[in-house]
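Hey, weird one. I pasted the RNA recognition motif domain sequence into the form twice and got a warning about non-standard characters only the second time. First submission, copied straight from the form history:
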Amino acid sequence: MQCLRVQSLLFRALPSARWLVTREASSKLFVGGLSYDTNETVLKEAFGQHGEIIEVKVICDRSSGKSKGFGFVQFMSERSASTALQEMDGQLLDGRNIRVHHANSG
């Protein structure tokens, strides 16, 4: 609850903070259904054709270090993220059909 309260106060005090969080969420994509062999380099190459990427992250298990089969790609612009979502959702990547959605902001 403390976190939500602080975030709410921040949004009221700094309207630009809300815009930054919203902008990040709309330019950040969730990518699911990844092959356990897909790494960040492969993901960046596949999505990079749709625009400038800020960050790529494949989520891995802490103990084994193996991919959990999903990750995130954050683009510089909302337009690039939207294009990538439309073009990449359902596409074959490393032998698997991936699912792409806008990432939830929290």
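That's the output from the first submission. The warning seems to come from a hidden character in my clipboard, not from the data itself. The chain has one domain: 28-102.
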